[in-house]
Amino acid sequence: MSSSENPEIVERVFKEEEEKEDKKDEENGGFLKKVKGFVQDIGEKIEETIGFGKPTADVAAIHIPRINLKTAEIVVDVLVKNPNPIPIPLIDINYLIESDGRKLLSGLIPDAGTIHAHGSQTVKIPVNLVYDDIKTTYHDIKPGSIIPYKIKVDLIVDVPVFGRITIPLEKTGEIPIPYKPDIDLEKIHFERFSFEETVAVLKLKLENKNDFDLGLNSVDYDLTLSDVNIGGAELEKSAKLEKNGISYIDLPITFMPKDFGSALWDMIRGRGTGYSMKGHINVDTPFGPMKLPISKEGGTTRLKKNKEDGGDDDEDED
């Protein structure tokens, strides 16, 4: 009787083949483990001998060097420390800025430089937030508001022995969506009146529509009365414009009434005088200095004289 006719012999042959395969796999697996362990031991010995180690990083600071109604420039300072005896390349920097889990901006900076051996280096990551993009994407973000943000940064470095390493970093903060103030020239108060030269004070009303205070440092303006440009000035002026509040400032001005022609008589009689005004205010904010535009077209104001000139004072005008 042949072996194929004996089930016990066939089963024994199959078992012997399986045992041979299992033994072969164990031998191969054991060999690979030995090789892996050997390489790891060599790496550890090299690390101990030469002093290789993993670099560290931290977000040292976040700056807003420039901010206006259109954009905010943000610079993230990341301090990277390299404990190794050789320079290590900073291969890529991935960054993401989000607010309440919503993406505002992301990007990649390739080939970001080299970190010196046994040294530290501050890597600057510049990003530019465009407010129109944010307001178009997220309609609930209103001008004048302050929004929270989170910056996520992944530094990818190449270190001998360790290979490529990703160092994740995070930092949170707040950033404003600035809004320009509303202005109104409530009245022009004559200090000294003559047809050749008149010295007056502009009583300017400023409404700060932002959720943060503005510290006024200076103002520049150009004024037109009754379609006659009477010039302007750039003045240093200190005042606190409280958030969501109204403030008043006085601006001195000198002009020649004779340039107004027949419109002068309407002005002297105290009738409403049309005006337009434009300029800028330079302010300090909790987020850094800003230069904000001010403008008013088609406004109406009043001219008032001092009592000694035969006119009304501020208390008699309303």
TrEMBL record:
InterPro entries: Lea14-like, LEA_2, WHy-dom
Biological processes per GO annotation: response to desiccation
Entry GO terms, CC: cytosol
SMART domains registered for this protein in UniProt: WHy
Compositionally biased spans, kind Basic and acidic residues: 9-27
Protein family (similarity comment): Belongs to the LEA type 2 family.
Protein name: Water stress and hypersensitive response domain-containing protein
Native source species: Anisodus acutangulus
